[in-house]
From TrEMBL:
<feature type="compositionally biased region" description="Polar residues">
    <location>
        <begin position="99"/>
        <end position="108"/>
    </location>
</feature>
<protein>
    <submittedName>
        <fullName>Uncharacterized protein</fullName>
    </submittedName>
</protein>
<feature type="region of interest" description="Disordered">
    <location>
        <begin position="92"/>
        <end position="114"/>
    </location>
</feature>
<dbReference type="InterPro" id="IPR015947">
    <property type="entry name" value="PUA-like_sf"/>
</dbReference>
Amino acid sequence: MVAGRFRALTLQQPFASALIFGPKRRDTRRFVPDMAAVGSWICIHVGRSSRQLKHRAPVSRIWPEVPERGTLMEHAGAVIGLARIAAIEDAKSEHVSSDPWTQVTQSGDHAWSP
């Protein structure tokens, strides 16, 4: 058996948990994702920084069940799930830019959707 390789994407909390356990359905990036990645699996890794937790209040309007800060940070440094890349889109397109998650994060011009 040949061992497969997984790529990983690091997201800060609460966005990593929102993507795996909550209603977040796309992530935006400044870099152009590799179009060959569509259809492949990617590990979702939780970064160790807590600086993005400042977004917890706006996130709770979109995701009322967002876990508390301590619970979110219990997973720092760990892979919490896998996502299959279904599409890569222009983050400036109307359906992506109107997504409430895109409005909270505003982190890039390129979006991928699991």
